[in-house]
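Researcher: I need the complex structure. Ligand is acetoacetyl-coenzyme A. Inputs:
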Amino acid sequence: MQNISVIGAGTMGNGIAHVFAMNGFDVKLIDINQAALENALKTIDKNLDRMVAKEKITPDQKVKTLEALSTNTDMISGVADADLVVEAATERVDLKFKIFSDLDQHCKPECILATNTSSISITKIAAQTSRPENVVGMHFMNPVPVMKLVELIRGYATSDEVTNRVFDLSKKLGKVPVEVNDYPGFVANRILMPMLNEAIITLQEGVAGVEEIDTVMKLGMGHPMGPLQLADFIGLDVCLSILQVMYQGFGNSKYYPCPLLVNMVASGNLGMKSGHGFYDYSQGPKNAVVADNFKK
Ligand code: CAA
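Model: Output:
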């Protein structure tokens, strides 16, 4: 596999494109929005500069990485020669179904179709295509250039050959692939999201404030970010949608999204990306302070 097409130039898409290009693959980053593509290239450039400054890569590797990257606003021409497509579009079922049905028509028959979905069923996505054995979940973690894990999700029909090839490919990216089966939330979010939800319930019940809850988990459990800070980082809308998938998928009240989370999403407080969540990011992520609503 040499030609990789990445669909969606948001946070995850640009991180995935960055990692493939840095590891010697030819990458096409595809998005219908030209401005999103330009922003993605700026972000990749900035993240590569950070890696050069920390001597993780040489200036020459930065140049080669950028040379390996091209962008395209047209999906059909952008995937024509792809050996692997990694879809990282917005987390909407209808959108992903349409993309996979289109990919099936326009990709080479042997092309592997991977999705970076955080919660939508791989089996249902694969069912939109005539090649469900070639469809697999390749779930990267944010920030993609830093986090080592690729959660490799086998749909009901994913073949052994495709699983093994994507497993080996993930290792070539310097990642650690972990194979899991297709159940709601897979493994990462099945365990992470109830913890984040519980932190929000703890806040809602007034057991402790935002900083106190985060400090307990950072200093007591060695987490790099507290759960409320992490929820803001992931996006509160993303957390809500994953919890809803698990609540519907299992019909178990332990996945019921906390009403405070639902209200924050409804009011547009989505965390870091909107500037407000449990913290206020108006002075930049490094200078975040507890949001006014949660000040004592
Ligand atoms: N690109 C390249 N390098 C980056 C980077 C990026 N986007 N962001 C951070 N880094 C590097 C920094 O250069 C730094 O490198 P060194 O260790 O060599 O100094 C390192 O990462 C740490 O960065 P910072 O010093 O700026 O900040 P930090 O120490 O606070 O760490 C963090 C930031 C890595 C994000 C850390 O807080 C962390 O690990 N947080 C938890 C992240 C997490 O849990 N992610 C998973 C979310 S769940 C998900 O993604 C899946 C889903 O479906 C919801």
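Model: Summary of the prediction. DSSP finds twelve helices and ten strands in the chain.
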